[in-house]
Amino acid sequence: MGKLGMMLMVGTLLFAGCQQTKPPVPVKYNGNFDTMQVRGIWMMCSLSFRQKNPFLPQNIVWKACDCYSDVIRQELTPEEVQGSEQVVDKNLQALLIKRCNPKIVPPVDPA
Question: What average pLDDT does the segment 32-51 reach?
């Protein structure tokens, strides 16, 4: 390796070593739900929306069920999801409405 190769290597190391590192992005979920549970939560949400309002546009159902699944995974454990008493105790419906409705349907500006 000649002088040029050595200079490139040292320059690369100095340049890479001086880069600022970004702090890691906090993880929303810890991976405690397996794939089938997540799919089941999403499917139950979708079926529920379809039964309550069959004419609701599909893109709204998708956004709602994505948000609902995310909130459920953040707030409950897989064991709590299996037991309906814990879900009622956490007042999940009010929490889902509060967190997800503004993302699904933007607030109307009363002008």
Answer: 91
